[in-house]
């Protein structure tokens, strides 16, 4: 029987971060990376296959750095993990003995419980190059496309489909909630995203529920709850994902049906030799340790790193808990955040103070391509002054500005801390030092505390 | 006699931050902003007047937000502060009584102690629109330009002069040290900047000392210590600046000849009614509290905010000390940093561990305009793991990424802290979550600790 020191099952963000960490920390260990797809796609890059990149093969994570480091990449389906004998059993009858194992099987897209989701040219998004090519082939001749779900995937897919060379005549984005991106972003930033989508030629239909999808063999229309019928050659569904725990359950590893593979803060599962990381693993909130539904590649990468470190370490590292740090770009605007939203603070009855700032993303604002109104909004706990979340809407540096916020939230800094700090500024790259949004937003909160 | 509640003397970064803070915190106070120039230029924007902006009047900070808030802007030269009577005396004989005063008189450019610095068309950079226009008028017909000094101002001026519509045939940048930007940047990033300058058509002459400047009335040549003569129609000198303490000294406020106006951590001067902020004020190092020569607009903005807050506050805010957070862009590359350099760590005999990471600034790297090698270098104290400094070289998001580092340094975070945090990533805006440079650089340092 073939054996390995560490078997990683699942080759996306968590699995790759685990492999990278093992190569860095335990270069003497034999690593096997098991996946059920021939190539690994860049998960967050999938929408860009359809517009900016124009081809599936431009969105592949190359294997060579792993192969060169001696990682054994196995493209097979795993039937079960025989934990008593520490053996992975593949569906072709082959086996692989392991010493430690990392489960990083990711998530499975939700399907809405409606008629017609099984019609031809109705697609969820799977991280499989062949599947993504099938979607591209269907989109190329399409004239009417309906995207169901206005979260990150739906918004980015709709925006990129609008940039296809063979652009469909009608692209509609259907969202149940009053706004796109509403669970992650501040409401006024959602409005910015919607305006950008409209400008890109996407018809944004919020407060709209889908009742059914109709067609003979192939999709023809999408029926809304209010009776409207939308013509559709292709339907793309992006309404969220559930932890993929099938293998874990089959193998007798403790799972929560909704939350995922049960893990400790060190990411150990109910089997001490097995760790879980990424979308398949249970999440705790950074803020209160309660179960969290946030699933992001940034969390997966962090968890993969922590889980892999812990496999052979005396001192076990612990995850800080799921924060929710993300970024997106819609049209000309980038939107990014870390931590809680105003809406979430209200829902949780938190007593918060909000500081805002707006400044040009370059200074002076007369510089070519300056975005005059790059906004930052910081949400602080009133009693302690502690930063709970921050949101950015503006130029392409929004994501890294959100990372300054992410660091501040995770370091549990206060409005006073942020208001006293010094920040790097430059005419072509940031707001002016006097207007710098993090400092000013913190000051604006501070005077309310 | 006219009176005011707060007199601010000096209208650049520190003075404007002070005025903004007073408007925010003490809206009932009467504010007078005194400056000796008709308009305030964006200080860091000065180099861009010559290339990207093309006009001095595009680099002006508008007064209206201050005037609209009732700030009295006085364009006069101050002779002396009569501190006994709390009166500012102007050179036209007028006076202004004050309750509190903020000194933000900035810095004066150094002149090298060589012959010829007083020749026509030999310029230092003053923050005065009329003066900047004179330089532009001289540069427009120039064929041979020599920039003396390879710090930020010199590098940015040379790069922008190379982008003038009436581009001089020869632009030479003369630097005494082995590299441009060497006191602020990592050596290998200095090399990147030099390559970008060369690509922009600037001849970079390092290890070169200027012996004299020659000409009849107007400059004709620059003579180097090795005897070489460089043709020059215009010479721009940017070799640093000294605190402008003339008024403080004339008014009997305690000063250190090299360090500037003496201040406490609360930025109070030897006169309890007078605070000082910005380039004119003494600086302490963020790291050890020792006198520091770092002078940046980001420090000035922070100090102006702190000083203004303290004027009428029971609880006095204290400056964290000068950190050194900056950013620049040379050609296609942006370079940014916060905290100490490897070179400074060596000079101070600090025992440090360095973690580096390199990744594309977008993911996948096949995206249009991706910069394949965006680098981050983090410098940690070995004994404590504490972050002392970080450096970034890559795309335009470098400055905000350096601000994540700035926050981390000022929050005294460790390599372990940074390696466990989650960061916002997006294909169009950052490296991939698995390769994200802050996390990976921290991990790479951690395995050496």
Overview of this structure, please?
The structure is a homodimer of 449-residue chains. Chain A is globular, with a radius of gyration of 23 Å. In chain A, the strands form 8 sheets. In chain A, strands 6-3-2-10-23 form a 5-stranded parallel beta sheet, covered by helices on one side. In chain A, strands 12-19-13-14-15 form a 5-stranded parallel beta sheet. A 5-stranded antiparallel beta sheet of chain A has the order 24-25-28-27-26. Chain A has 449 residues and is an alpha/beta fold. In chain A, helix 1 packs parallel to helix 8. Chain A folds into 3 domains: 2-36 and 76-108 and 242-310, FAD/NAD(P)-binding domain (3-Layer(bba) Sandwich); 111-239, 3-Layer(bba) Sandwich (FAD/NAD(P)-binding domain), CATH 3.50.50; 335-446, FAD/NAD(P)-binding domain. The model of chain A has no long low-confidence stretch (mean pLDDT 97). In chain A, helix 1 links the parallel strand 2 and strand 3. Chain A is 25% helix and 27% strand. Chain A has helices at 13-25, 46-50, 64-68, 129-139, 152-161, 187-199, 246-250, 297-310, 342-347, 398-410, 415-420, 437-446; strands at residues 2-3, 6-9, 31-35, 40-41, 60-61, 72-75, 78-82, 87-90, 95-97, 100-103, 107-109, 122-124, 144-148, 170-174, 202-205, 210-215, 219-224, 229-231, 234-237, 241-243, 255-256, 260-261, 274-276, 325-330, 333-339, 352-359, 374-381, 387-394. Chain A is built from 12 helices and 28 strands. The interface between A and B is large, with 86 and 86 residues.
